[in-house]
TrEMBL record:
<dbReference type="InterPro" id="IPR052701">
    <property type="entry name" value="GAG_Ulvan_Degrading_Sulfatases"/>
</dbReference>
<comment type="similarity">
    <text>Belongs to the sulfatase family.</text>
</comment>
<keyword id="KW-0812">Transmembrane</keyword>
<feature type="domain" description="Sulfatase N-terminal">
    <location>
        <begin position="37"/>
        <end position="407"/>
    </location>
</feature>
<dbReference type="GO" id="GO:0004065">
    <property type="term" value="F:arylsulfatase activity"/>
</dbReference>
<protein>
    <submittedName>
        <fullName>Arylsulfatase</fullName>
        <ecNumber>3.1.6.1</ecNumber>
    </submittedName>
</protein>
<feature type="transmembrane region" description="Helical">
    <location>
        <begin position="1"/>
        <end position="24"/>
    </location>
</feature>
<keyword id="KW-1133">Transmembrane helix</keyword>
<keyword id="KW-0472">Membrane</keyword>
<feature type="region of interest" description="Disordered">
    <location>
        <begin position="192"/>
        <end position="211"/>
    </location>
</feature>
<dbReference type="InterPro" id="IPR017850">
    <property type="entry name" value="Alkaline_phosphatase_core_sf"/>
</dbReference>
<dbReference type="Pfam" id="PF00884">
    <property type="entry name" value="Sulfatase"/>
</dbReference>
<dbReference type="InterPro" id="IPR024607">
    <property type="entry name" value="Sulfatase_CS"/>
</dbReference>
<keyword id="KW-0378">Hydrolase</keyword>
<dbReference type="InterPro" id="IPR000917">
    <property type="entry name" value="Sulfatase_N"/>
</dbReference>
Amino acid sequence: YASPLGMTTLGVSIIALLMLLSLLPASTLQAGSNDRPNIIVIMADDLGYGDVSCYGAKAITTPNIDRLANEGIRFTSGYCSASTCTPTRYSLLTGTYAFRKQGTGIAPPNSPTLIPAGTVTLPSLLQSAGYNTAVIGKWHLGLGEGQPNWNGDLKPGPLEIGFDHCLLLPTTNDRVPQVYVNDHRVENLDSSDPLWVGNKKPTEDHPTGVSHRSTLRLDWSHGHNHSIHNGIGRIGYYTGGHAARFRDEELADRWVNDSVKWIEQNRDEPFFLFFSSHDLHVPRMPHERFQGTTSLGLRGDSIAQLDWCVGELTDALDRLQIADNTLIVFCSDNGPVLDDGYKDEAVEKLGDHKPAGPFRGGKYNVYEAGTRTPLIVRWPGKVQPAVSDQIVCTIDLAASLSSLVGVPLPNDEACRDSFDVSDALLGKPGAVGRPHLIQQDNGVKGNFGFRVGNWKLHRYGAKNTYNVELHMKNSAIEPFQLFDLQTDPMETKNVIDEHPEIARQMKEELDTLIKQ
Ligand code: NG6
Ligand code: CA
């Protein structure tokens, strides 16, 4: 019947319902908070298994990373794909082993984009599920075609493979140039001072870490002696772009500020943020407020800065009341290294801190510590706090997160090495991780680790490997070795002669997987 105001009962009810809904907090109204949580992947740089207190560090405390572990699942067999940066990041985004594609080792300053435009990627899959996507931080996967067009449009790049927004350090901060790439452009570039980047000295009198070594405030130990910026020698040469250059000390603040702003802008839609920290990669030059705050020197101070970044991001989620529908994955891009080319006292101030935790090796090799790194998943209310020994890897995020949000992989080639281990990542009872995992180093000489259950096979294409004891010394190696991680997590006793049949099967399986 008609109400006194001329409205139907149904009309009145709808208005009442709308008024009631408007009183609820925004998070309750968000589309599909159960099946489409916001997703933040926080990737640390060169962070070892034992570098954070929730994984056993005593010399340093990381309260914000520990909080993620206490409120989520801490994986003891969580891996990245490679023991260097570029191949791990390539695999994270494409769900494909980097050794399948030539040229995916550590990218030089003028590297073109390594992931072709239109490739099916973790961000493109989430984008097709309606997510707003951004990458903020270190890129190191190349930009542009042929080589980056530093003074023009830097494309293709992240925006052509599924990110709606990017704010990037183009490679690593020990490589030139120290500028931000904001979407397709170098930020604050003055056209009267064009940016030039190259691998040869531009002029005879160009100041370098060799010619002007006495002026450096952080001396180099190997490499890192080409152009100087901010008193630090770098890999590669550059001139111009002075207005665009940033100070190393401000990187983390800028990325945190921009990330929080971007989250605020996107809080009402599901979003995917890849927060790609530069800590604790060299040059380790955290903000002044972190310098000297740990006993471990600049390496430890950079871990403190990383932990602060994590706290700022989680605080923002709390403040915006979206923590409960935000899934966070915390991980690293490769294992630890001490002296990675600068005299920053990482070795001298180590004390009894064990960056690799209970494992052997680190960055650049296929021993466990090269790729077995902190990996934590937090999703309050959905993931019960636990410790899991299931094998999961950053390469699995593409298939797992797209499955979680209900987007099927479009074909067999897409993300072909990525396993849907979403149930294991969320800690569902009885859920299992990967049955096997290939671990690669930088991929140039074909060194592989292959884990199946608790067996670990090493296969070397090179005669030497380094950083086995966290020092950059060469160690001679047998082409094939077999370890039992159950009894020998340190990979000290090669048992290949005791278990010839297991070794034979694993060699064959590895070979098949590599050739696939
Ligand atoms: C090496 C650099 C090292 C680091 C690494 C890449 C020298 C001597 N060493 O070539 O300092 O930059 O490349 O690290 O130049 S990664 O984490 O980005 O893979
Ligand atoms: Ca790295």
